[in-house]
Design brief:
single chain, 176 residues, alpha+beta, four-stranded antiparallel β-sheet, 8 strands, globular
Length: 176
């Protein structure tokens, strides 16, 4: 029994170490602006969900960490192929940039893609809702919602609502 338990504990420790090391690059925290290259960004963070190529040769890469994750990272790579910066975008500063009259592409450039399970069409009002799970300033999970006119794809309104999928219908804390 002691040998089996010891092997189990060793396996748990090794597995935990691998998981921690894998997560180190998940946010790109191991990358250095002005030094790291696009191939290094891809090796560290994986394939982006979306990529925008700008006329000057720079690129913007979206890394949503859902569906259960509460953050999306935008990596900006200059025309020289070097990382400029990585921004966390699911926060009030970026939500405030979403304005009535914007189109879907403009919203995607600010927040990245929403979770497909959080996209809903309301036929009676002809509205399409995209939602992003995020951590609010009280360390609780909420959704930021963007309502589009389903015909034109233009932002109709925005809002927030709590994630009530926690224990006993409560709001889960971030990191749990």
């Amino acid at each position: 029994m002691d040998g089996n338990f010891s092997a189990w504990v060793r396996g748990l420790v090794v597995g935990s170490a691998l998981l921690v090391s894998a997560c180190a690059g998940y946010s790109g925290s191991n990358l250095k602006p002005g030094v790291s290259t696009l191939p290094e960004v891809l090796a560290s963070m994986g394939e982006p969900a979306m990529v925008w190529k700008n006329p000057d040769g720079s690129e913007q890469l979206a890394y949503p960490r859902g569906p259960l994750g509460t953050q999306t990272f935008m990596a900006y790579v200059g025309p020289d192929g070097k990382l400029q910066r990585i921004d966390k975008v699911l926060n009030t500063e970026h939500f405030a940039r979403i304005q009535v009259g914007m189109n879907k592409e403009q919203v995607l450039r600010v927040l990245g893609p929403s979770g497909s399970s959080w996209t809903q069409f309301y036929s009676r009002s002809n509205l399409l809702a995209w939602s992003w799970l995020f951590c609010n300033s009280w360390n609780s999970q909420e959704f930021f919602d963007v309502m589009f006119d389903a015909t034109s794809g233009i932002v109709h309104s925005t809002g927030q609502h709590p994630n009530l999928s926690g224990r006993d219908g409560g709001q889960p804390l971030c990191g749990q």
